[in-house]
C-alpha cells in the first residue's frame, strides 16, 4: 500500500524508512524470476535445451535466479521479442540470427546464402574467435550471447512443384524471415519474397496467399507447413546460427558467481541442443515422408550458389567494413 505523504507526520515517515532499510538488509536478495521467449513448441530440441538451461540455473543458483521458458512464441513474434529482450522487458531468449540482422548489422553476414559450407563449419566459426566478435556486436545492442545453437540447413518448399533449378522458382511467392537479404536472395533466384511472421505462414500457405517458404526439416515439420506445402527441395541455401541471449540489464544484476553459473548452463544447453538436433532431423524427415511429402535432391546446387553473386556484391558495396568478416568466415573451414 502506498502511504500518502500528506496524511502522515514526517517523523513517522522517517521511522518507517529506517525500518524498511533494516528489513531489506535482513532479508535474502530478491529471487529473480526470469521470463524467456521461445518460438518453438515443447519437445523441439531448442525447447528441451532451454528448459534444461532453466532447470540448471535454478538449481545451481539455489533459486536466486529462476528462469521460465514461454514456448510457441506466445510472448510475441521474433522481431518484437528481440526488442523486448534488448529493453529488459524479457530476460532471455533463443534467437535466430536472421531477424537479428536489421538490429545488429554485422550479423547480416550470417544470413548470406551459402556463407557456411556445412553445419560443422558454422559451429567452428561461432565457437571460436569470430563468434566472440558477433557476441561483442550483440552486446552493443544490450544482448548478451552466451552460446550458439544450430538450426541445420534451410531449404525451399512449396505447394506447386519440385525445385530443381532457379527457373523453377519463377513466379512463386515465398515467405522469408524479416531481413532484406532474404528478399534479395529470393529475387535473384526468380521468386517473389514476402517477409512474414513465422506464426502466420501456415494459414497463408493454406489459403494460397503464399506458394512456399523455406526452413529446416524440424521447423517444416513442427509448424505443420508440410501438411499444406508438399514439395521440399534440398537447396540448403542458409545455415544460420542461433543464440542463447540474455538481456544486458538482467545479466548485470547478477553476481560474478551467478554469471558463471548462467554462462555454463547456456553452454551446456547448446551442447544438448546440437545433439538433439541430429535425431530430430531424422524424425521430422520420417514424419513428412510418411505424410506424402515429395523430397527432391537438388543436383545442380552450383546454379543456386552462382546466382548469389549479385547478393554478395550488393551487400559488400553497402557494407564495405564487413567484407573482411566474410573472408575470415570463408577461410575458417
Ligand atoms: C526456425 C528458427 C526460428 C525462426 C523460424 C522462422 O529456429 O527462430 O523464427 O525458423 O522461419 O528454423 O521464422
Record the SSE blueprint:
Blueprint: H1 10-26, E1 32-37, H2 45-60, E2 65-70, H3 78-87, E3 92-96, H4 119-127, H5 129-140, E4 143-149, E5 154-158, E6 173-176, H6 180-188, E7 192-195, H7 201-206, E8 212-215, H8 217-222, H9 225-228, E9 231-238, E10 242-247, H10 248-252, H11 256-290, E11 294-297, H12 301-307, H13 309-318, H14 323-331
Parallel strand pairs: 1-2, 1-3, 6-7, 9-11
Antiparallel strand pairs: 3-10, 4-10, 5-8, 5-9
Helix pairs in contact: 2-11
CATH homologous superfamily heading of the largest domain: Bacterial extracellular solute-binding protein, family 7
- Give the percentage of residues in beta strands: 15-25%
Number of strands: 11
Rounded mean pLDDT is: 93
Summarize the main sheet. Answer: 5 strands, mixed
Tell me the Rg in angstroms.
23 Å
The span between the termini is 62 Å
Order of helices and strands: HEHEHEHHEEEHEHEHHEEHHEHHH
GO molecular function, one term: carbohydrate binding
Pfam families: DctP
Protein name: Tripartite ATP-independent transporter solute receptor, DctP family
InterPro entries: DctP_fam, TRAP_DctP, TRAP_DctP_sf
Amino acid at each position: 500500500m502506498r502511504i500518502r505523504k500528506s496524511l502522515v507526520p514526517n517523523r513517522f515517515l522517517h521511522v518507517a524508512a529506517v525500518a524498511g532499510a533494516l528489513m531489506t538488509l535482513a532479508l535474502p536478495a530478491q529471487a529473480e524470476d526470469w521470463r524467456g521467449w521461445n518460438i518453438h513448441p515443447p519437445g523441439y530440441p531448442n525447447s528441451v535445451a532451454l528448459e534444461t538451461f532453466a532447470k540448471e540455473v535454478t538449481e545451481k543458483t539455489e533459486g536466486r535466479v529462476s528462469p521460465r521458458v514461454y514456448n510457441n512464441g506466445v510472448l510475441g513474434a521474433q522481431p518484437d521479442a528481440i526488442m523486448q529482450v534488448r529493453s529488459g522487458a524479457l530476460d532471455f531468449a533463443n534467437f535466430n540470427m536472421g531477424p537479428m540482422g536489421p538490429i545488429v548489422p554485422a550479423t547480416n553476414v550470417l544470413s548470406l546464402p551459402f556463407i557456411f559450407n556445412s553445419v560443422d563449419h558454422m559451429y567452428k566459426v561461432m565457437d571460436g574467435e569470430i563468434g566472440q566478435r558477433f557476441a561483442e556486436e550483440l552486446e552493443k545492442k544490450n544482448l548478451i550471447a552466451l552460446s550458439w545453437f544450430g538450426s541445420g540447413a534451410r531449404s525451399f518448399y512449396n505447394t506447386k512443384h519440385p525445385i530443381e533449378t532457379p527457373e523453377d522458382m519463377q513466379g512463386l511467392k515465398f515467405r522469408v524471415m524479416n531481413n532484406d537479404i532474404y528478399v534479395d536472395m529470393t529475387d535473384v533466384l526468380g521468386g517473389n519474397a514476402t517477409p512474414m511472421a513465422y506464426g502466420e505462414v501456415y494459414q497463408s500457405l493454406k489459403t494460397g496467399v503464399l506458394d512456399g517458404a523455406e526452413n529446416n526439416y524440424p521447423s517444416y515439420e513442427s509448424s505443420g507447413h508440410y501438411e499444406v506445402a508438399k514439395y521440399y527441395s534440398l537447396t540448403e541455401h542458409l545455415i544460420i546460427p542461433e543464440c542463447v541471449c540474455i538481456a544486458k540489464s538482467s545479466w548485470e544484476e547478477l553476481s560474478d558467481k551467478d554469471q558463471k553459473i548462467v554462462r555454463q548452463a547456456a553452454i551446456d544447453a547448446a551442447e544438448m541442443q546440437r545433439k538433439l538436433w541430429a535425431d530430430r532431423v531424422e524424425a521430422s524427415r520420417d514424419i513428412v515422408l510418411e505424410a506424402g511429402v515429395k523430397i527432391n535432391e537438388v543436383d545442380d546446387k552450383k546454379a543456386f550458389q552462382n546466382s548469389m553473386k549479385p547478393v554478395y556484391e550488393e551487400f559488400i558495396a553497402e557494407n564495405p567494413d564487413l567484407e573482411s568478416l566474410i573472408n575470415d568466415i570463408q577461410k575458417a573451414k
